[in-house]
Structure formats: structure tokens, C-alpha cells
Design a protein that fits this description.
mainly alpha, two-stranded antiparallel ribbon, two-stranded parallel ribbon, 5 helices, 6 strands, 35% helix, elongated
């Protein structure tokens, strides 16, 4: 998914640059083969995923800046460059931790990281422990305009609501994007 976003943003930037250069009456090769060549380079394994802060990211950024330079675009970044400094903060798991469901009596079920759960809280909160009854609410979506209420018939008062990431596939794209939001899901659960 991240690759698609990077490719899409890069295409928008290169297309914008082509249009600006065309507006400035500069000859530009905007052929399908040229655009394909940009995509193939930026998506190549050579760039190792282009994660910020890695050599692959720097190569991709230098490539796009070079294309802008060739088109004659005026740099508008920091210190007269094509780059703008943006502070980024990255978190890495110290370890996978544990997630164990405890039932009545001595019944327990250990969940597997990456298969059964992924941490979804802010890393700034540190360790967290809670207990309570769980209530499964499907996607956790309440969308009257689609005759959908995943909470219908559920008593969630004082309980931990468990929902699936995402939203129903039969919803229009823009509305799905809204209902996928964890902020919207938390507000609905509350």
C-alpha cells in the first residue's frame, strides 16, 4: 500500500512538473514510455522500499529533484533546493510483547502477534493492562444511510469493544475511508 502511495505522489509531482514546464513553453517528453520508465525506476528493488531515512529514499528523492531540475523548475525548498525538511518520528517495537485473553476459571488464550493482533495504541502510552468483558461489534460501523448498525442488539456498556479493521466493501470508496478511521470507530464505541 505504501508503494502505491509513493508511486501515486511521484506521478502527480512529475505530471505537475510536466504541465508547469509545458506552460513555460519548454519541450517535455510526456510519453507513456517515459512515464513508465519513471515508475519502473522508483518502484525498483534498487531503492529498497524507499523508507524515510534510508539510502533508497535518498536515491528516490534525488531522482525526483533531478527530474525537476531537467524541466527547469524553480526550486522552492529549503536553502534554494528542491527539498523541504520535515521532522519525522519513527517508532520500532522493542519486542512483540504479549496479548493474553483470560476467561472464567484458569482458561487463557495467548494471541499471536501479527496474526491475531497488532498494537494499535500510541507508542507514547507505554505499557497498558486492562480487563473486562469483550464484545465483538464486527467493523464497528453505524451507517444508517446504508442500513448498517454493527451495534444493534449489543450491550457494550462497561465492556471492551472489539472491532475488525476496515469497513464493508459494499460501501462507496469515500464513505469507506470515513468509516475505516479509528477515530470514528472509537467515538462510535464510546
Amino acid at each position: 500500500m505504501r508503494l502505491l502511495r509513493v508511486v501515486a505522489v511521484t506521478l502527480v509531482l512529475l505530471t505537475t512538473a510536466v504541465l508547469i514546464a509545458a506552460d513555460n513553453r519548454r519541450p517535455v517528453d510526456a510519453s507513456a514510455d517515459r512515464i513508465r520508465a519513471h515508475i519502473e525506476f522508483l518502484a525498483s528493488d534498487l531503492l529498497q522500499g524507499r523508507e524515510p531515512g534510508t539510502p533508497g529514499y535518498d536515491i528516490a528523492a534525488d531522482y525526483v529533484a533531478g527530474q525537476f531540475r531537467q524541466l527547469g523548475l524553480t526550486p522552492a525548498g529549503n536553502s534554494g533546493s528542491y527539498f523541504q525538511k520535515v521532522p519525522l518520528l519513527a517508532y520500532r517495537l522493542l519486542d512483540r510483547g504479549t496479548f493474553v485473553l483470560k476467561g472464567a476459571g484458569d482458561r487463557t488464550m495467548a494471541l499471536v502477534f501479527g496474526e491475531d493482533y497488532l498494537p494499535g495504541v500510541s507508542p507514547r502510552t507505554g505499557s497498558r493492562s486492562t480487563s473486562g468483558s469483550l464484545v465483538f461489534a464486527g467493523f464497528g460501523v453505524v451507517a444508517p444511510e446504508h442500513n448498517r448498525d454493527d451495534y444493534s442488539g449489543l450491550d457494550v456498556t462497561g465492556k471492551i469493544v472489539v472491532v475488525i479493521f476496515g469497513a464493508p466493501l459494499d460501501m462507496p470508496t469515500e464513505e469507506r475511508a470515513y468509516y475505516v478511521s479509528s477515530r470514528v470507530k472509537r467515538a462510535e464505541a464510546a
